[in-house]
Amino acid sequence: MSHLSGHRQDFLLPDRSKYVNMEKRFLRSYMDLLVQTCHRRGALATGGMAAPLLPQSQQTDSYSRVLASVERLKLLEINAGVDGFMVYDMNLIKPMQELFELHTEGDNQLHQVRDDVSVTPEDLLSMPSGGVTLYGLKYNIAVGVLFINAWLSELL
């Protein structure tokens, strides 16, 4: 990708819909450090954004596949000790609340101080392998436009 002059290639993230998720070393490390830092200070730790959109019909394989993927990744965050997380699709609120309630006790996980965590700069700077795709670029633009639309809609 030498055509991207001015950008450090070792910090160029690949297609996030294919290669970047909380299972990757750098995001997992960030999540563990976030929980440890927040909880040591008595602050709630908010996990990442569940960005996928659920298909309209709950009776499809695609719906089940997307929901299962989001649940799997959010369970990693719950097990790391987050006290909640954000969702992009409002239809994910109920299933994510149910998932959180099923795997936690109480309103938060502040009791998980995560003394087991030892994150290094290398952990946080380890970029996942994979390529940049046209689909990934279009997806990122679409998400950005939808967010801006939602923000502007709130102002009107």
UniProtKB/TrEMBL annotation:
One of its GO terms (cellular component) is cytoplasm. It holds the Pfam family MS_TIM-barrel. Gene3D superfamilies: Malate synthase, domain 3 (3.20.20.360). Its EC number is 2.3.3.9. It is an enzyme of class 2 (transferase). GO terms for biological process: glyoxylate cycle. It comes from the Eukaryota. Residues 7-126 form the Malate synthase TIM barrel domain. InterPro entries: Malate_synth_sf, Malate_synthA, Malate_synthase_TIM, MS_N_TIM-barrel_dom. One of its GO terms (molecular function) is malate synthase activity. This is malate synthase.
